[in-house]
Amino acid sequence: MEYNFVFRTRIILIAVAFSVLVIVCRLYYVQIIKGEVYRSKAENQYIKPSTQGSDRGSIFFTLKNGDKIAVATMKQSYNISINTKDIKNIDQVYDALTQYIDIDENEFKEKVAKKENSYFDLLKKLDTATGQSIASLRIPGVVALQESYRVYPADSLSSHTIGLTGFDKNNLLAGRYGLESYYEVALSRKSAQNSINFFAEIFSDLRKTVLNLESVEGDIVSTIEPTVASYLEKTISDTRDKWKSDSIGGIIMDPNTGEIYAMSKLPNFNANNLSDIKDAKIFSNSLVEDSYEMGSIIKPLTMAIGIDSGVIKANSTYNDEGSLNLNSRKISNYDGKARGIIAMQEVLSQSLNVGAATIALKTGPENFTEYFLDLGLGEKTGIDQPNEQKGIIKNLLTKREIEVATASYGQGISMTPIQTVTALATLANGGNLVRPHIIKSIEYTNGNSNTIAINSKRVFQESSVKDVTNMLINVVDKALKKGDVKMEHYSIAAKTGTAQIADPVKGGYYKDRYLHSFFGYFPAYNPKFIIFLYHIYPKGAEYASETLTDPFIQLTKLLINYYEIPPDR
């Protein structure tokens, strides 16, 4: 009996001691670690209660050396306002304020004298030191409000990928578009409320502490490398200026992991200053939200399907008659000319529609369609961006020969840019479909972190895509600009695409409007990067080889030099 009493007493004492320890630790966290936050809140209660969320997680870019830099973060400032009804001596207030800030004497005194305008803003986003100095004066009628606001140090760089913030119904910052929206749960802060009970804050995480539940609040570390992103945006900006494109975009990705080094489109925006934005559509990320008929960059996938299914070999030949009649419709090569008996290599080197259609028809509509589905072309990739859309491949699902034939060279079906580069990456990484992603890790406020796992699904045999890679190297070495862009010590696999743009009013296709696309990966025998470029309705050139070859080669050389990639041949 005595033993049981002593045992129970010890258990109770241990429980009490543990509870006290938890409370003491929480007090230390609130008073010491977060002391500055609560001190700021206390000061504002005496001056003016804040109506704006004071905290939000940061978003970082990752530098080549592994360091990180903030590209979306909170900045502290003071807003100085005047309540004219509480001003007793205008001259004294003016003299006190001008110790710290420059204000127009006549304008200030005139506004204060007009008592009917009882409240006006004097100065916004004043630096913290000056704001605190004015607040410490505690002048009746002078309201110094400490506030936090979202800043984007990189300005417009990768603006669609990062996104922006706005105010929700509770007047708190919330993500709008991009990573800001996709990772709202992690970036938002429950503590960013208008008023917080001190003791409630002490005990708010008790359950989480005792049960060791992981916090979901944290900072986002992205895979975007700012120098690479700058290279990409400068290149596509120059290209758009030269060809007067309606819009343009590009993606640079590691084909083996799905990590996105850069993903940008133009026109873009600067989230620090949205005053000139007239149309909210500019905030939408067409790289994941809009789908397009991509044209001949799909032909290498068709070639891989033919080789992988065993209906052709890399050294096979076929009879190119220049056109085919299927389901009462005619398809032709870009120039309508027949080539006779030629090698499969020429399907890619000369970008022959009839050759691609021949491969698809040999594979069979059902089998060919199954490969496209395995490539994820009818589904979302799962990239961490909001509002991602599926590709439109309903024509292909009919299994009609004409639909399969046109799909084989990238017409009649549409894909988002991110779906396109993800599918094409299978040719670079040995035949695996990887999940593209922009987040490297989440660094939680409790000290833990999560790193994104790499997921993949095999679509092609490794030997099949190796054959296609060799064919695409041949395209660059001999066919693209007649071999002028060949790099002696680096193997580059690439293909252009030129697609007619559908006419939404009259139906069919425009006769003079095209979407140009280009993809390539390098070093082709051990790829580090895959680059995808596209622009809509460039003026003055019909084919993508004219408008996108030089930008691709320029980016390739920049990346080789920047990452000091060793030669592979």
Kindly describe this structure:
This protein folds into two domains: 34-222, Penicillin-binding protein 2a (Domain 2) (Alpha-Beta Complex), CATH 3.90.1310; 226-295 and 375-386 and 406-562, 3-Layer(aba) Sandwich (Beta-lactamase), CATH 3.40.710. Helix 13 runs parallel beside helix 15 (353-363) and helix 13 (299-309) crosses helix 20 (462-479). With 569 residues, the chain is of the alpha+beta class. Strands 1, 2, 3, 4, 7, 15 and 16 form a seven-stranded mixed β-sheet that branches. A five-stranded antiparallel β-sheet has the order 9-8-20-19-18, sandwiched between helices. The chain has a two-stranded antiparallel ribbon with strand order 5-6. It has 22 helices and 20 strands.
Task: List key phrases describing it.
alpha+beta; Penicillin-binding protein 2a (Domain 2); Beta-lactamase; 2 domains; 5-stranded antiparallel β-sheet; 22 helices; 20 strands; 22% strand
Give the total of domains.
2
- For the terminal residues, how far apart are their CA atoms? 85 Å
What is the helix fraction of residues, given as a range? Answer: 25-40%
> What is the CATH top level name of the largest domain?
Alpha Beta
**CATH superfamily grouping of the largest domain:** DD-peptidase/beta-lactamase superfamily
Offer a quick outline of the entry.
With 569 residues, this protein is α+β, with helices and mostly antiparallel strands. Helices cover 38% and strands 22% of the residues.
Give the topology, please.
Layout (H helix, E strand, L loop, with lengths): L1 H32 L1 H13 L11 E4 L5 E16 L6 H8 L7 H9 L5 E8 L1 H10 L4 E10 L7 H4 L1 E4 L5 E4 L1 H5 L1 H4 L10 H7 L1 H6 L6 E5 L3 H18 L3 E7 L6 E7 L19 H4 L9 H11 L7 E4 L2 E4 L2 E4 L7 E4 L1 H5 L3 H11 L1 H10 L19 H4 L3 H8 L8 H12 L3 E3 L4 E6 L4 E3 L4 E3 L3 H18 L13 E10 L6 E14 L6 E8 L7 H4 L1 H14 L7
Parallel strand pairs: 1-7
Antiparallel strand pairs: 1-2, 2-3, 2-4, 5-6, 7-15, 8-9, 8-20, 10-13, 11-12, 14-17, 15-16, 18-19, 19-20
Helix pairs in contact: 11-22, 13-15, 13-20, 15-18
